[in-house]
Specification:
There is one protein chain. This protein is α/β, with parallel strands linked by helices. It has helices at 10-18, 40-56, 78-88, 108-123, 139-143, 155-166, 177-181, 185-196, 214-220, and strands at 3-4, 30-35, 68-69, 94-102, 128-135, 210-211. Helix 4 (108-123) links the parallel strand 4 (94-102) and strand 5 (128-135). Helix 8 (185-196) crosses helix 9 (214-220). The two termini are 32 Å apart.
């Protein structure tokens, strides 16, 4: 299996020791994030993990456990990979599993089926599954940090607009991208929610532009 579990930091080890004290409420629990991306999504969410660890410091009361794949995980394989991770690491208190994927060229049936499967598995007990999808691509989430957008545009236009707003070419593997966007995060969260609320009753594959990446940041807002 092409998955590599994250190494425990000293902060994580101390956090796990403090979990034995049942009188203290410790949040968030471990979060497992799987994505299709080769560079953009892993870099972005690894930077989120690092930011939270640095902000909370040695007395942290929670930690994201980010699973990084050595190669992209196709949407059709994400649930299988999540199950394999849970099976191989039964001691990990995984409470939330986030599946990050783009509409792009994914067939509508598969795109929507992943959303329904997350809901089904969550109702069945165990970890809560979340579908963090973007239609057309995660660059919509990045763009919403700067401007509102209510038109479905081709993928390349997201890259062009980001380059224009950044004042430099948009690089999918930019290691400092997360930190550069962080001050604008409240804008992105609000604009993404506004877009999502426009599509009451529509199936997800037809919601364009739209992204649910804000749900992760809503969940972790107290720690960012």
């Amino acid at each position: 299996m092409s998955l590599k579990p994250p190494k425990k930091s000293d902060c994580q080890k101390k956090w796990m020791e403090r979990r034995r004290d049942s009188g203290r409420l410790i949040l968030p629990e471990y979060h497992l994030i799987l994505s299709e991306g080769k560079q953009t999504e892993p870099n972005y969410f690894q930077a989120l993990q690092k930011h939270i660890a640095q902000k909370l410091g040695p007395n942290d009361r929670g930690q994201i456990s980010l699973l990084v794949s050595e190669k992209p995980i196709p949407l059709k394989d994400m649930f299988k990979e999540a199950e394999a991770y849970l099976r191989l690491h039964p001691a990990k208190p995984i409470k939330h599993i986030w599946l990050v994927y783009d509409k792009d060229e994914v067939k509508p049936d598969l795109f929507n089926a992943a959303v329904h499967e997350c809901r089904k598995r969550t109702k069945g007990g165990g970890p809560t599954y979340h579908a963090l999808w973007s239609n057309e691509c995660i660059e919509l989430w990045f763009l919403l940090h700067f401007i509102p957008l209510d038109a479905c545009i081709p993928r390349k236009q997201y890259f062009d607009k980001l380059s224009e707003l950044l004042g430099r070419p948009y690089q999918k593997n930019d290691p400092g991208f997360f930190e550069s966007l962080l001050p604008l995060l409240p804008n992105a969260r609000q604009r993404a929610k506004t877009l999502r609320n426009r599509y009451k009753g529509a199936d997800c594959a037809k919601m364009c532009p739209c992204t649910t990446v804000y749900e992760l940041f809503d969940k972790l807002a107290p720690y960012i």
